[in-house]
Design goal:
single chain, alpha+beta, about 50% helix, elongated
């Protein structure tokens, strides 16, 4: 069939294992180590002894565009690694390694028990049990210690001894290490049986075993799906996503690691480092802008594929510029992208060229987020927006420190957060922002993310969950606009934030609202929340605002007295009307603060029409369907 890049053929199990032994069939280097325990090995052997199917293998022909660094099957002789493999085993490593170790290698198998204890085992088949149709075939597969003696009673009692060939004959057990040498074993058995006068008794059993059990190994055919050398990297990655369901999902980073390894570059070492004290890039990201009380830095969740994404943006932009210089235009121009296919085709030279600037871009992104009062991973509105932020900062270098550029960057960032534009399907937006924002900073047109961003005034009423990027954003904006703690009057810089355990809390306390029969979907809105220290929130408790304000003014064991005029100033810094709060006027407070928060959002996004479209809200109403859908959408992000 036209376009087919694979074929499916049955291949002799013995031939496959010999290919593993001599190095013609090897593994791509990114494959995890052999991990099967002795029970899984016994189950596999039992299936083959009955000629049952054990699943297809998948191989990739070498010499094509997918150039992985190979490594031999575990246990293969040293000389096998010097052979250039004809094929790489993409799916079936655990099965093939288990069978190779047990049947062809001729050495004790180093495996693990089901409880993960390391053991050394030889594997045998109990001949009589294997011929008993009523017996469980797995019980006929014997796993015995390295000395081939089975003991009990804390090793004081010898139950079975298979340590010599004669003992194998005596106990009628067949060593699976000789499964492809069964004819020679039979000849030795004949000699022993004649010498011991047991030929007539035992030979029919051995013959039946050879015909009904051992022949299933020597004649076993394994279905092999063989991908030819024309298979693309994208297709190989997709294959792994489909077949690699039992272990860690294989991502583009692992494949790129294997591709670079073929050229002698250890990508994994770049990312993870080497040894405990030698931090790789991941370690540097985890600790970037990390303060003593924070578990991790703001970049701790940056993935290795996120980093490659930034490098790919630079490389594919280079390709686009070359194409533009050659006169190509429109759809003929290469895409600027960090999609998986682009990552798999990222040359090592391009990675080396841009890796340092990409890292600096991420480190600058962490500093930028701190200036926006985003201190913790928990409070990060969008993980995905770090990618274009890092790419933009890497591209413009020190120019981000200029005030005019910082203001534009802030406007772009908050447009993405408050416009809730980085929640899903963000690949094309990342690429556009990478191209458009630096151009905007240099005097070009406004980026799409800024021009498209919008914020419905009613959205403030439905923002009640930390999962909402806009919810987190409003909280950070309040701190950025120098909101002061009600009790201490301190602004929420990073020292106060961590030292005073600052978090977002209700202004009209939850308990008071419930006593007034105010619905949770109303009082839990971001309109009724603000950043406060832990100690301040304790003082507030569940009292009416007029009561806790009086308590703050009076002072006590937990806090010094706060001057009423100064306290009004602290409240105003949170966009709270002190008069309404002191009057416990919840509805008027909600209306007034909604308008104030909208002005704050207008300022951050550079939009100036939000409050003009605001109509008086009925805060006793349930959410409408659109608001409910928006809340569920945000919760799913």
């Amino acid at each position: 069939m036209a376009g087919t890049t694979f074929r499916t053929n049955p291949v002799s199990l013995q031939d496959l294992l010999k290919s593993c032994h001599d190095g013609r069939l090897q593994l791509p280097d990114f494959q995890r180590s052999w991990v099967w325990d002795e029970d899984r090995i016994k189950s596999l052997i039992a299936s083959i002894s009955r000629a049952f199917p054990v699943g297809a293998l998948m191989t990739l022909e070498t010499g094509g565009g997918v150039n992985f660094k190979p490594r031999t099957i575990e246990g293969a002789p040293d000389g096998a690694s010097k052979t250039l493999p004809a094929e790489l085993l993409l799916d079936g490593q655990q099965r093939m390694t288990s069978l190779y170790q047990v049947t062809l290698r001729g050495q004790v198998v180093k495996t693990i028990t089901p409880k993960k204890h390391a053991v050394e085992r030889w594997f045998f088949i109990d001949i009589k049990k294997s011929l008993d149709a009523s017996a469980d075939r797995e019980e006929a597969i014997l796993s015995v210690p390295a000395d081939k003696i089975i003991r009990s009673d804390f090793n004081r009692q010898v139950d079975s001894d298979y340590s010599t060939t004669e003992q194998e004959f005596e106990n009628l057990v067949f060593p699976l290490s000789r499964v492809f040498d069964g004819m020679a074993w039979q000849m030795e058995f004949v000699t022993w049986a004649n010498a011991n006068g047991r030929m007539q008794e035992l030979w029919p059993i051995v013959q039946q075993f050879y015909t009904e059990v051992l022949a299933n190994f020597t004649g076993y055919q394994v279905p092999v799906i063989a991908l030819d050398r024309g298979t693309t990297k994208e297709a190989v990655c997709t294959v792994f996503e489909k077949v690699n369901t039992g272990g860690k999902p294989l991502d583009a980073f692992e494949l790129v690691t294997a591709i670079y390894a073929a050229d002698g570059h250890e990508l994994r070492k770049d990312w993870y480092g080497e040894g405990r004290d030698n931090k790789g890039r991941h370690g540097r990201f985890v600790t970037a802008q990390k303060l003593a009380d924070a578990e991790k830095g703001i970049l701790a969740n940056v993935a290795n594929t996120d980093f490659l994404h930034v490098v790919s943006l630079f490389y594919t932009r280079d390709l686009r510029r070359v194409a533009e210089a050659a006169g190509r235009e429109g759809k003929d121009l290469p895409q600027v992208t960090g999609k998986r296919e682009a990552l798999l085709n990222l040359p090592l030279a391009a990675y080396k060229q841009y890796q340092s600037s990409a890292e600096q871009g991420f480190l600058k992104a962490a500093k930028f987020l701190f200036t926006q009062r985003v201190y913790r991973l928990f409070d990060l509105p969008y993980q995905t927006q770090i990618i274009p932020l890092a790419a933009i900062l890497a591209d413009i270098g020190d120019a981000w420190e200029l005030e005019a550029n910082r203001e534009k960057l802030q406007r772009w960032y908050w447009s993405g957060v408050l416009g809730e534009l980085y929640g899903s399907a963000v690949e094309s937006r990342i690429s556009r922002d990478f191209l458009e924002v630096p151009s905007w900073l240099a005097g070009g047109k406004v980026p799409t993310t800024v021009s498209e961003a919008s914020f419905r005034p009613e959205r403030l009423k439905t923002m009640r969950m930390r999962l909402s990027a806009a919810y987190k954003g409003v909280n950070a904006l309040l701190m950025k606009e120098r909101a002061k703690d009600f009790r201490s009057g301190q602004e929420f810089d990073h020292t106060v934030f961590f030292g005073e355990s600052v978090d977002i809390h209700h202004i009209f306390p939850k308990k008071w609202c419930q006593e007034q029969n105010i619905k949770s979907e109303v009082y839990d809105s971001i309109i009724n929340k603000t950043p406060l220290s832990y100690r301040t929130n304790r003082i507030i408790g569940g009292a009416a605002p007029s009561a806790y304000l009086a308590k703050l003014e009076a002072g006590g064991p937990e806090a010094s007295a706060v001057d009423p005029i100064r306290l009004d100033g602290f409240l105003a810094s949170h966009l709270i009307d002190p008069t309404l709060l002191r009057a416990d006027d919840f509805l008027a407070f909600m209306d007034a603060r909604q308008k104030s928060l909208l002005k704050l959002i207008e300022q951050a996004m550079g939009k100036h029409s939000l409050t003009s479209t605001l109509s008086d809200g009925d805060y006793s109403n349930e959410m409408d369907e659109d608001e409910e859908e928006a809340e569920l959408t945000v919760a799913a992000e």
